[in-house]
TrEMBL record:
<protein>
    <submittedName>
        <fullName>MFS transporter</fullName>
    </submittedName>
</protein>
<feature type="transmembrane region" description="Helical">
    <location>
        <begin position="342"/>
        <end position="364"/>
    </location>
</feature>
<feature type="transmembrane region" description="Helical">
    <location>
        <begin position="384"/>
        <end position="404"/>
    </location>
</feature>
<feature type="transmembrane region" description="Helical">
    <location>
        <begin position="317"/>
        <end position="336"/>
    </location>
</feature>
<feature type="domain" description="Major facilitator superfamily (MFS) profile">
    <location>
        <begin position="29"/>
        <end position="450"/>
    </location>
</feature>
<feature type="transmembrane region" description="Helical">
    <location>
        <begin position="424"/>
        <end position="446"/>
    </location>
</feature>
<dbReference type="InterPro" id="IPR020846">
    <property type="entry name" value="MFS_dom"/>
</dbReference>
<keyword id="KW-0813">Transport</keyword>
<keyword id="KW-0472">Membrane</keyword>
<feature type="transmembrane region" description="Helical">
    <location>
        <begin position="201"/>
        <end position="220"/>
    </location>
</feature>
<keyword id="KW-1133">Transmembrane helix</keyword>
<feature type="transmembrane region" description="Helical">
    <location>
        <begin position="50"/>
        <end position="73"/>
    </location>
</feature>
<feature type="transmembrane region" description="Helical">
    <location>
        <begin position="130"/>
        <end position="156"/>
    </location>
</feature>
<feature type="transmembrane region" description="Helical">
    <location>
        <begin position="100"/>
        <end position="118"/>
    </location>
</feature>
<feature type="transmembrane region" description="Helical">
    <location>
        <begin position="252"/>
        <end position="281"/>
    </location>
</feature>
<dbReference type="InterPro" id="IPR001927">
    <property type="entry name" value="Na/Gal_symport"/>
</dbReference>
<feature type="region of interest" description="Disordered">
    <location>
        <begin position="1"/>
        <end position="25"/>
    </location>
</feature>
Amino acid sequence: MTSAARDTSGTLTDKNGRPGPKRTVPVSERIGFTIGDLASNLTWSTVGSYLLYFYTDVALISAAAAGTLLLLARIFDAVIDPLVGVLLDRTNTRFGRAKPYLLFGSPVLAILTLFTFWTPGTHGTFDLVWAYLTFILVGIAYSAVNVPYGALMAMVTRDSKTRMALASFRNVGATGGLLIVSIATTPLVRLLGGGDQQRGWFLTVALYSALGMVFFWIVVKLTKERIPVEQATRARGSLLADLKALVRNRHWVAVFLASLTQFARLGVVTGGAIYVAAHVFDSPDTVGLILLAFSVSGLLSSFVAPVITRIFGQRQGLILSLVVYVVLTLVLALLVHNLLAFVGVFFVASLFGGIGFVALPALVSDSVEYQDFKTGRRNEGLLYSGYSFSTKVGAAVGGAALAWGLSGIGYSAESESSAVSGGIAALFICLPVVLAALQIAALSFYRLEKDLPGITKALEARNSGSTVGE
């Protein structure tokens, strides 16, 4: 190879293999990652924040049945996500490795998201069957798009600091998506539905789905896969060997468990907000204020997370943030009769509790380097598929725990009692605290940070022969 090339860290090199400019990811590409997470969350934040409510209050499915549905459908992803990851590790097309999934999968995701928020209206068994079918299919479509999109960050650069910066840009987009969903959804449902909730939900989700599809196409245009295909395709081989390497990657396992509990908290908070608004504060419209506080806190986390992880380190920074989150969340129990005070403390707690949404995707990419160093297998697709699985199953576990909790306190669409409102407040506060404690335990096993610079240098030295002209 005699033309300009790129080394395995994603840095430009000239025809003699000399390193070019240090900056490897231009601003336009970073914005592309912001747009990608915006697209992803227009779909998944809508599902996470409103699908349980849609099931219980529009489709009139019982809370217990809806909770079981949310969990069982996501267990199916135990097969789908790794299959997508394995397929991605073996993909090499003229469009790239990850990009074809975004290009061709996003229209399918848009259509299935739309029909997930539609119900036949029989008020019987067929409504529940339809809910199972559409929720399973939209989960498959989301895997087919989001696993490759998430793995794309590990294909762009090897540099851990650059990936942390990209993760911050991603979180800005994710927060933007949640912000739009939080503020605009219920007004749009009323406006577009004209009093018909089912029509309002269908048209609102149609708008979100169409925007998400277009945004994913923009990601395809703006991003660039830099890790050489020759290196990436080295991971092809025995699936059993890939899976063994995965479970022996203790740093990835720690991140997987931390992500599982992080997104279970997300499932409880976003799914529970509308119940807290309607039954604790007696005003369904205050859900916009609660989710607005959560969204803005997530946006600020994008800027705070790099500072905290730089000062305290990745693991210690995450653990300290979670400790603050637990303390502040427990304080909420004293504020259930004061909406503004409740939202204010909830905002600060969510700021610290949201650090993981920024840092964990970057830690997944770091675990890819460890896997490559130890086994010679990068397996970006497989490792990120495991992370994607943890986010979906985590959110489903959180949503299911919330739904079963609602059933346990006797909730129904018509229920109005102090016992129900007190039970909803307890679920909204206690479930996230327990999950945060489990997340701290998982993060205590992550120990990669100090060794990563040496691992990266060793990989660059090992792979340099593939990027310099012969």
